[in-house]
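Assemble and predict.
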Amino acid sequence: EVQLVESGEGLVQPGSSMKLSCVASGFTFSNYGMNWIRQAPKKGLEWIALIYYDSSSKYYADSVKGRFTISRDNSKNTLYLEMNSLRSEDTAMYYCAKWDSGALDYWGQGVMVTVSS
Amino acid sequence: DVVMTQTPPSLSVAIGQSVSISCKSSQSLVASDKNTYLNWLLQSPGRSPKRLIYQVSKLDSGVPDRFSGSGSEKDFTLKISRVEAEDLGVYYCLQGTHLPLTFGSGTKLEIK
């Protein structure tokens, strides 16, 4: 059974940094691209980053480019999202999701990030 | 960026009725490999999204055949026949052909 478990939830002040993790199991992690998607409270879904299976390519939404960094450690079956210069508009539930053939086929349960003074 | 226009924003239906949700893209979703990467997701209340349909019309394992997807190029439809109580939630279309990936704005399905 595919499982994606995010961690790193918390409340931070504007301008600060935070790192999220997503531990994968139930599939060969090193064979698949992975994504981060977020959902602001009562809002829709926003894709924010994709990393290829071997970290050879990384893509970001304009809203986070230059502030967020996606990475992975295939030896630990873990995906990361390092978030810097956080803003109030980054407040959202953050999901990791597995990428397969043009689709986000499995999602984690999500972690809440709140940016507030 | 590809804009995904999803309608209607909400639906209220009785158990057993059928509903359709439309998703129109601002660009063709036919990829260079000739596949069309249009997906439908359901976010049940308090849950993370779950994929129902991929590549326009292929049902994920365990998804009832009351769900069907159709369409091509820029115009897609999700149909739910014989709605059941468990179908309530917010449905999203997602295009995976172009980066950035983009979602429709969602359709909230309520049960009368």
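Chain B touches chain A at residues 31, 35, 37, 39, 41, 43, 48-51, 54-55, 60, 92, 94, 96-97, 99-106 (CB under 8 Å).
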